[in-house]
């Protein structure tokens, strides 16, 4: 048997001369003798750096371009203005947040400009106005923890005193994040401190239909709506009990479980008589 290895996954790369690719990032070893701290020491040599690949930026720009230029997305003109702005903002924010660890995050400025042009052209095509009139209609400034931000804002008023829905484009900073994260290598708690209710019901060993203390099983249904009675047949006792408790599980003994699947009526009095006969034997 011949073992074949994937070259992109097993490639050994020299970090200072080439970049290794992992999860959409370029991983490099930083080296710059001109970068020094306040004491005059070289400060970045040998450190690991994460970069945004330029081919990724170009690939993310393609959906918003036609013939090499930003263009309106005609498949979105049937949406409301609020929905259009929200969708463009969510798409760009998702990419910007994913690459927040990259030190060259400013490369996403090209994607932001192309996405913004495509957004304004889409709104202009929908409302039959020019791009300048789109900015005149929706230009806004709002406050953020990092200061005031400018962009596009669409408000949708609602009735009954509800706050208006606000959709915004802009305000996503491309500055490098310097927040340090402390990792805690603790084993996750597999079991909760308080056992689940289903486990307690199983451990009790009591049938919830005939009240017998014996080995139990779980009868399970997919949906509570399956417990609704039909037009002619009356709802069985076990279904009434599950519907009243709004549970999709029922802890039953093997006899009751077989009676449920066979369609026989499972009643408490018959089960008590069965238990009495078993005790006599």
Overview of the structural elements:
With 281 residues, this protein is α+β, with helices and mostly antiparallel strands. The protein has helices at residues 7-10, 54-61, 81-98, 108-127, 131-138, 197-204, 237-245, 254-262, 268-280, and strands spanning 20-22, 25-29, 48-51, 65-66, 69-70, 139-144, 147-156, 165-169, 217-220, 249-252. Helix 2 runs parallel beside helix 4 and helix 4 packs across helix 5 (131-138). The longest helix has 20 residues, at 108-127. Mean pLDDT is 82; it is low at 267-275 and 277-281.
Key features?
281 residues; alpha+beta; 2 domains; three-stranded antiparallel beta sheet; 9 helices; 35% helix; extended; disordered C terminus
Give a brief outline of the structure.
By secondary structure, the protein is α+β, with helices and mostly antiparallel strands. It has helices at 7-10, 54-61, 81-98, 108-127, 131-138, 197-204, 237-245, 254-262, 268-280; strands at 20-22, 25-29, 48-51, 65-66, 69-70, 139-144, 147-156, 165-169, 217-220, 249-252.
SS strand fraction: 15-25%
Q: Indicate the low-confidence ranges by residue numbers.
A: 267-275, 277-281
**Helical amount among residues, as a percent range?**
25-40%
Describe the global form.
extended
Helix-strand topology string: HEEEHEEHHHEEEHEHEHH
Major sheet:
3 strands, antiparallel
**What is the strand arrangement across the widest sheet?**
1-2-3
User: SS-based structural class?
Assistant: alpha+beta
